[in-house]
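Field: COMPLEX_INPUT
Field: COMPONENT_COUNT = two
Field: RESIDUE_TOTAL = 746
Field: MODE = joint
Values follow.
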Amino acid sequence: MRNPVYTAIAIAVGLVVLAGYFLEFELLVNLRIVLLEWATILVAVALLVGVINLFTVHWRKMSTEPQNRTNSAVLIISMMLTLGLVGWFGPTAPISLWIFNHIQVPIESSLFAILSVVLIMAGVRLLRRKPNLLSIVFIGTAVVILLMSGPLFGIDLPALADLRTWIGEVPAVAGARGILLGVTLGIVAAGLRILMGADRPYGGS
Amino acid sequence: MEEIICPHCGKPNSPSNKFCDYCLGQLKQSDEQISEAEHSEIGIGRDDLSEQTPEEYGPDWLKNLQEEHSVKGEEPIDLGDGLSTPSEMISDWMSGDEEESLTTEAGESPPGEGSQVQPFLPHDGFPEDDGLPDWLDDALLDRSEQDGFEADSRVDPAIEGSEQDALQKDPDATKPSQGKLGELESAGPLAGLKGALSPEPGITRPRKPAAYTTKLRVTATQRAHVDLLASIVEDEGHTKPLPERKAISQRHVLRWVITIILLIAISWPIVTSSQQMPFPAYEEVSAEVSRLVSQLNGNSPVLFVFDYEPGLTAEFDAATTPVMDHVISRGALLTLVSISPSGPILAERFMGLMQASHEYKSGEQYVNLGYIPGGAAGLVSFFDNPQNTLPYTLDGVPAWETSTNKGLPPLTGINEITDYEMVVLLVDDPDTARTWIEQLSPRINEPDVLTSFVLITSAQLEPIVLPYYDSSPPQVNGLVAGLRGGAVYAQINGNGDIARKYWDAFGMGTFTAALLILVGGLGYYVIPELMRSPQVQRKGK
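Field: COMPLEX_OUTPUT
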């Protein structure tokens, strides 16, 4: 244990916040609220530090790495321009919304559009690369869900519709429940380890 | 097989021979002949020996030593051939009568009585006895010339070179060497006796350690392996050029074909302005949301959470617009927040879209409180104490009522999360959805809380959040999933312009995608199989 003070503070804060959920003492509840507000402020500061770090890294790249100079320059110029305009006019100003609507939204939407083509191509090639039972089941499920998610030109296929409903409510939900249970157990275990000092993500180990 | 050396000519003979093959001399003698020859050689007859026991003809201290070993139960000292030492050959100083002469001036006890054997040097005390054989005399003289005296009289193979040389120079010296190997004492008071003293490591002279070569001896096979390994390691350092990729490969063609087919399929309903495809059938999970919204009264506070990526804007626009239309039509006052950094601007954008049909003004009918940092911790902080967590609007205006500030109408009477009548979460990420559900559900499931919690998600998230809706008690009160959910909701409430606009293109796109995967996959697999020559197919089998 490099610094037991960090560990002691983390465990004490965790126990106070946890106890504030179960014990209705005014002191504990107020203490929990204050600690959570501090955490919120600290995370906001961390976000700011992250932005500054991003700027610093790309500034260094632009200065020292000629091959990455263009990309880093584009990032820094975009960042400074957006920061200046939004900071000056405000986040709800028309110019700020214009930047968002005409640059960020189309770029990210294009990525999803490309993803659809790539996924279809992967589905086409799947049987060629791995012609086994699981591949056939995967392809069959995808085709049924895709067909029955849309209107299908008004054609009524009750069997396929029931199959789509069954897939969505039984196997998919069963898998999702398993994932959620696993995640929940993992979170409980991680929380207990931090409370006991076994894990020290704050740098005390 | 051992050989017998002829005592006459010195040549080796088979052990079965009685006579030498070279000189025809007698090789073996009978036991009696051997015994007599030995006894005659040392000058004592068998009769004399038979009359004397070892205890009788040895010196007193040797007798005592023998008795001591017998008493202790140890194996008696093997006197061996030493017992055959003739009494005439033992000098006076060695006999029991001369015991006093062995005692040192300091009065030390004689050897064999627990005292350490003193080094015995021939030049200061070795008796000038004519009875000693010449070979013993010479050997002792040679050894006295060396720089030390070995208490251990046995000849060691690792004896120093000078000592060996001295022995080799004199052929007679080989005799005592053999005698020493046979534990024959060559110096001191026990000279001529065999096995009288056991060797003691503590009194041996330390010798130089054996020298080993530092050169690595490598066989030809090992050398070949080393060369092979070296060549492999050397090859690893060299980059091999990748095979050149074709400018237009089969994959490129396939990718472009899929893209063009999809574009044509999606564009066709837009170009033709076709809106013929029927809306989906009634779904309970979406209808439940409509029922909850219908229960809102005028000026009911409703919290909208915008936590999705800007890339999914189109899908969320189509799914959220019917719900928002319905909520606004009920006259609810809206609060907008987000736990993702791009959420506040998404909320502002969406409210801008809604201005086309509803005149909702910021600060009057709705308020955008912006970004809640801190993930789950920030959420809990906002639930417990929203005034301190988000004190200002996105424009920097103080939002909450204080002693100096009137506060904004949508936030009037809001002190914690359960003061809202409805919470609507727009989310596309499973972790974000789980965080909200885990933190909010325990609070709204209290008996005296009337807050309802509904989700508007992307289609990909529907299976993940459906278990929360199906649980008992439900942790989520309703769900609108993707464009399909928005279309269902629009059909229920009759206000689905955006969903109607997207629905045909969406239907064509999903149908084409399914067809491409089905037909393309089968064709991509079956056609090459059919094109393979029968010979290759047989090889594959």
